[in-house]
């Protein structure tokens, strides 16, 4: 693969990246701004990082966001994995029907999903707050888990389960020792996706949370009306860097695994 | 093995309560007035052709989403193509760079554009700085699109461009190289190879890119609220307004039903073209 | 020889109304190498899976050591399987794959280590313990699958087309090796294949199946030399099969001529299939031949030449070490004991 790189295509790529990263760079740079202005540079300062940790609204919102993301992804993983297993072994008609229902929250506009859940919680008389927020997040997270696990089940060599039985494992042992390890990459992907979607969600949270429970997105949104505090820039910079580091670590490690395997093959 | 099907029961119950029932509830509410009596008024109000306020909003949403999608396609296809021509190792990293911005809260990213676009924002400051070096005759005009439809389009393009690039890219890298070589072998020029082989084969990616850009652009209410100001309300804003401000849930639900039907029709249409779901897999 | 280890009695198997196995009766002795041979869809794999416990017969009884075995689940059977595509556990290394069964049985660690290393030695892969199974070649994976099954000291090893995915040379090597392992360990092997050569090379007993029925059970030599019907004759080795009439004992008519043969016990003038192996047809000068014909094609096959000779409506396949030129008029000769007379199979099962 020795393709000539046309200078025009390089220039084009640079422009696109500039477009995509400009707001992020602005955001990160201004998180270190001494002044409160979001347009004028007044010197370097860590002031907003300090104030961030003293801002209880934001810290509470961060805690809520993480708690909702963790719990909802964990629950979604359990229900979703079980559902994927059941779907994989059920009749085609039932599978198609349920898969269509499952894809509804993904196809549908977030705003419609959010409103429909708001109506449900009102209808059954559930007070809007942490619980309703959690249920909403579980709802839109399950499809991601199912869609991550299903392909792994399809790839699964059916014989390995039988092989485990053949070697003396009970069906339950065979499931935990053979099937689960093989579909676990799908489960992990599902969890990460669900977690990300949960943290990133604004619209559905906006409609399903109560006045006293805020996720970060909801807090940010209500701030945009009164003007964003630079602390939030500091917080997103921190979160962005955390995610970036995690992703790089994961990529480097999986890259090393691939290399190791390739070496073995030789 | 038979017992494994029982694992489906909790989810079936969950899906029934939290996916199916809420949608039925929206439909139910859409036929109710504020007192709870059954009525068709909500729909009549929306489809009022003598005073088409809401139809205009819907039309504006579709128009802006369409423009945004076209721009995304024009910007995104060449990018995906350039990306697919890189060596496998490099292109993985670069593709990763397209996903990376999505890990920063999208409200903040959109908000950040305000700092850039404002009358006295960073872009205009930059233009002013350049103008300082230029003779008076060739001054660059300042950019004043904040709180216009174009700001909304820009916000859409910015937020959804990666969703256009990645599906196309995924399809492009899967095209069998030998097909391209075969076309060249049969005497096709580079331009013809692109038009006759590469582009037709990449269409599934284009279709899923369009659906992943157009749908959220039609229904957004945050981008229009932040960048479009009050006067460029979209259907999403109007629905949100009914629920959060006006309190007319029936009318809000009716608009949601209209939106939902629109989405389902479009998706049904798109699925016919989408031979595989490869485009989505990258993001999931 | 010892008595029957496995006995299948009148086994039937239906899948959604489709009969896959019809009245299978089969006995397997201890330490025997039995091969189930037949074209795809003949029910051989289903039979194996019933013995392994992965399928329940619709009707009939499976006996193991003369005890009814129908309701014993796979993990409690003294039977292990080598699966068609090996079914190695991709998340475990070679050592853990082989140790899997022993760990389930909570064998002490030291015993596990000894057992695994002796198994690796048996399959000639010593030192492979820490390899990942996905990095192995097809042949190596195959050996690991065999080791993984054998380490549990099964009474019976079931092998489902284990060599199907290997190339020709490797397949030949593995055939010899498998046979050695079987003799060395003294374990009963039940082997499924569609490759007649494999079946003839390795087995003590060959069971030929077609459309869910057993066609013939016998030693490789017996089945080759005395095929029970035209299907078996055609499936095992190459054959000329022509329509004929059994005039009376020791005399038959085919290809427009009467021949002397060695079969008896047919109805007078019964319609029969006449089977002649291509190597049993001798090319002689036209006047010395029982049949006369013209050589239509000739192909060099390494050890011999394979020719087709047209005589009237019939094209005979002939093998000979001496080539003839195409278009040559030749005579064909066959000895009476090389003419095999077969009843037209009374129940012609439709192919599925």
Q: Would you give an account of this structure?
A:
The complex is a heterotrimer of chains A (266), B (284) and C (352). Chain A is mainly α. Chain A has a domain at 56-231: Orthogonal Bundle (MetI-like fold). Chain A contains 11 helices and no strands. In chain A, helix 2 (47-54) crosses helix 11 (230-265), helix 3 (56-88) packs parallel to helix 6 (130-155) and helix 3 (56-88) crosses helix 10. The model of chain B is unreliable at 276-284 (pLDDT under 50). In chain B, helix 7 (149-174) packs across helix 9 and helix 11 runs antiparallel to helix 12. Chain B has one domain (39-106, 147-281): Orthogonal Bundle (MetI-like fold), CATH 1.10.3720. Chain B is mainly α. Chain B is 73% helix and 0% strand. Helices cover 24% and strands 35% of the residues of chain C. Chain C is elongated and about 80 Å long. Chain C is built from 8 helices and 20 strands. Residues 347-352 of chain C have low confidence and may be disordered. Chain C has 2 domains: 4-230, P-loop containing nucleotide triphosphate hydrolases (Rossmann fold, 3-Layer(aba) Sandwich); 240-343, Beta Barrel (OB fold (Dihydrolipoamide Acetyltransferase, E2P)). In chain C, strands 6-7-8-3-9-10 form a 6-stranded mixed beta sheet, sandwiched between helices. In chain C, strands 13-12-11-14-20 form a 5-stranded antiparallel beta sheet. In chain C, strands 15-19-16-17-18 form a 5-stranded antiparallel beta sheet, with no helix packed on it. In chain C, a hairpin with a 2-residue loop joins strand 9 (205-210) and strand 10. Chain C starts with a strand and ends in a 9-residue tail after the last strand.
């Amino acid at each position: 693969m020795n393709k000539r790189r046309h200078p025009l295509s390089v220039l084009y790529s640079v422009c696109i990246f500039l477009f995509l990263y400009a707001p992020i760079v602005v955001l990160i740079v201004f998180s270190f701004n001494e002044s409160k202005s979001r347009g004028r540079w007044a010197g370097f300062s860590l002031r907003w990082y300090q104030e961030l940790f003293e801002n209880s609204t934001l810290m509470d919102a961060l805690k809520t966001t993480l708690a909702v993301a963790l719990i909802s992804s964990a629950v979604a993983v359990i229900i979703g994995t079980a559902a994927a297993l059941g779907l994989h072994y059920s009749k085609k008609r039932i599978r198609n029907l349920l898969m269509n229902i499952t894809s509804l929250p993904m196809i549908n506009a977030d705003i419609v999903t959010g409103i429909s859940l708001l109506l449900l919680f009102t209808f059954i008389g559930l007070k809007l707050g942490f619980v309703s927020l959690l249920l909403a997040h579980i709802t839109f997270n399950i499809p991601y888990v199912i869609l991550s696990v299903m392909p792994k089940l399809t790839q699964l060599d059916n014989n390995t389960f039988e092989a485990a039985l053949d070697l003396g494992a009970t069906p339950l042992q065979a499931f935990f020792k053979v099937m689960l390890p093989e579909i676990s990459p799908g489960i992990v992907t599902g969890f990460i996706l669900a977690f990300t979607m949960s943290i990133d969600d604004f619209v559905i949270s906006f409609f399903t949370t109560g006045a006293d429970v805020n996720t970060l997105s909801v807090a940010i949104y209500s701030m945009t009306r009164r003007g964003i505090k630079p602390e939030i820039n500091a917080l997103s910079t921190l979160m962005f860097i955390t995610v970036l580091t995690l992703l790089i670590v994961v990529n480097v490690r999986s890259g090393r695994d691939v290399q190791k395997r390739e070496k073995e093959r030789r | 093995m038979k017992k494994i099907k029982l694992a489906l029961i909790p989810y079936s119950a969950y899906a029934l309560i939290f996916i199916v029932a809420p949608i039925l509830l929206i439909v139910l509410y859409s036929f109710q007035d504020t007192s709870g009596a059954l009525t068709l008024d909500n729909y009549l109000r929306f489809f009022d052709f003598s005073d088409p306020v809401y139809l205009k909003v819907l039309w504006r949403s579709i128009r802006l989403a369409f423009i945004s999608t076209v721009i995304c396609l024009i910007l995104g296809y060449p990018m995906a193509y350039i990306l697919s021509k890189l060596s496998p190792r490099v292109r993985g990293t670069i593709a990763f760079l397209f996903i990376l911005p999505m890990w920063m809260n999208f409200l903040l990213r959109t908000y950040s554009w305000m700092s850039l676009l404002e009358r006295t924002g960073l872009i205009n400051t930059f233009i002013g700085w350049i103008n300082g070096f230029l003779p008076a005759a060739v001054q660059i005009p300042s950019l004043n699109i904040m709180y216009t439809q174009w700001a909304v389009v820009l916000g859409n393009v910015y937020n959804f461009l990666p969703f256009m690039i990645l599906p196309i890219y995924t399809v492009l890298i899967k095209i069998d190289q030998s097909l391209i070589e075969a076309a060249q072998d049969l005497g096709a020029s580079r331009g013809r190879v692109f038009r006759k082989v590469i582009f037709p084969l990449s269409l599934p990616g284009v279709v899923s890119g369009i659906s992943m850009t157009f749908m959220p652009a039609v229904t957004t209410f945050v981008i229009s609220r932040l960048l479009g100001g009050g006067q460029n309300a979209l259907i999403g804003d109007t629905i949100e307004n009914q629920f959060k401000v006006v309190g007319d849930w029936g009318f809000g639900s009716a608009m949601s039903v209209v939106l939902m039907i629109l989405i389902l029709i479009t998706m049904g249409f798109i699925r016919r073209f989408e031979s595989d779901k490869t485009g989505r897999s990258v993001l999931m | 020889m010892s008595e029957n280890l496995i006995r299948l009695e009148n086994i039937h198997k239906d899948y959604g109304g489709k009969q896959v196995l019809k009245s299978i009766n089969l006995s397997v002795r201890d330490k025997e190498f039995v091969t189930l041979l037949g074209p795809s869809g003949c029910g051989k794999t289903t039979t194996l899976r019933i013995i392994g416990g992965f399928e329940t017969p619709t009707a009939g009884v499976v006996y193991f050591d003369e005890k009814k075995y129908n309701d014993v689940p796979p993990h409690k059977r003294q039977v292990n399987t080598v699966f068609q595509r090996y079914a190695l556990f991709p998340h475990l290394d070679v050592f853990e794959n082989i140790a899997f069964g022993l760990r389930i049985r909570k064998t002490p660690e030291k015993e596990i280590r000894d057992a695994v290393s002796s198994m690796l030695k048996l399959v000639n892969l010593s030192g492979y313990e820490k390899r990942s199974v996905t990095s192995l070649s097809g042949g190596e994976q195959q050996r690991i699958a065999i080791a993984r099954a054998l380490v549990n000291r099964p009474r019976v090893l079931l092998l489902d087309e284990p060599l199907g995915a290997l190339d020709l040379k490797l397949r030949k090597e593995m055939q010899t090796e498998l046979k050695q392992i079987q003799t060395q360990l003294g374990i009963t092997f039940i082997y499924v294949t569609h490759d007649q050569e494999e079946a003839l090379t390795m087995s003590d007993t060959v069971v030929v199946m077609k459309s869910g029925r057993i066609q013939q059970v016998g030693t490789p030599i017996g089945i080759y030399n005395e095929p029970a019907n035209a299907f078996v004759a055609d499936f095992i080795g190459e054959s000329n099969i022509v329509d004929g009439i059994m005039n009376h004992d020791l005399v038959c008519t085919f290809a427009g001529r009467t021949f002397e043969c060695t079969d008896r016990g047919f109805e007078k003038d019964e319609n029969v299939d006449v089977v002649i192996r291509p190597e049993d047809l001798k090319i002689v000068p036209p006047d010395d031949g029982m049949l006369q014909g013209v050589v239509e094609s000739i192909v060099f096959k390494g050890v011999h030449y394979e020719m087709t000779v047209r005589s009237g409506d019939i094209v005979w396949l002939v093998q000979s070490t001496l080539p003839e030129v195409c278009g040559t008029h030749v005579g064909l000769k066959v000895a009476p004991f090389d003419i095999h007379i077969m009843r037209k199979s009374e129940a012609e099962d439709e192919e599925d």
